[in-house]
Design goal:
198 residues, mainly alpha, two-stranded antiparallel ribbon, 6 helices, 68% helix
Length: 198
């Protein structure tokens, strides 16, 4: 007996990433769906809560549950699967809290697809902007009863964003160096513009 090579499907137990990449650019459709589902659902429930239900407590609990599900899903599932990043808090034996930020080691072959990466980062960056807008609109409209909900939305969304940016960029020193390099470059460009004008 000999094995017939097939271009259609891999044998049982073999990893054929090229076959899966040809089929779809999104290798983890369920993780991608839930990455966006809880985020957008919380925003939509906040925007439409007066239409859906006039009861504040029902809307508030629904939004907080959706935000909590989103935080857990993004932190524990979609970040790891879609972009290969994860972060967590670890308490040492002496009781000190330490934050750990990890990124998947690249062996020269990218294990994440660009479509999944775009879905992840777009969802991670756009939704917190909505919550910032909601915080300001709640404050300026004097709708104080919603302030706790929108602040919770803002904090949970920004915590994930901060954690994954730290994973992507590196440790605190890398963020400082990156900011310092950027500011130095901007000052240099501005100085060069001023010297070319005169």
């Amino acid at each position: 007996m000999h094995r017939q090579d097939s271009q259609e499907s891999p044998l049982f137990g073999e990893e054929d990433d090229n076959f899966r990449l040809k089929k779809s650019n999104i290798r983890h459709p369920l993780a991608s769906f839930f990455h966006l589902f809880f985020r957008t659902s919380a925003i939509l429930v906040y925007l439409l809560c007066d239409v859906i239900s006039g009861r504040f407590i029902v809307c508030m609990v629904t939004i907080i549950l959706l935000l909590s599900c989103d935080f857990w899903t993004v932190k524990n599932v979609s970040g790891r699967l879609l972009v290969g990043l994860r972060w967590w808090n670890q308490v040492d034996e002496d009781g000190r809290s330490r934050w750990v930020f990890e990124s998947r080691k690249s062996d020269g072959v990218s294990k994440t697809s660009s479509a999944e990466s775009r879905v992840f980062w777009l969802g991670l960056t756009v939704c917190p902007i909505f919550w910032v807008i909601f915080v300001f609109s709640t404050i300026f409209s004097f709708n104080i009863k919603w302030l706790a909900v929108v602040i919770m939305g803002l904090v949970l969304q920004w915590a994930n964003l901060y954690g994954y940016v730290r994973c992507k960029v590196g440790g605190k020193s890398s963020l400082r160096n990156m900011a310092k390099t950027y500011l130095t470059g901007q000052i240099f460009k501005q100085a060069m513009k001023e010297t070319t004008k005169t």
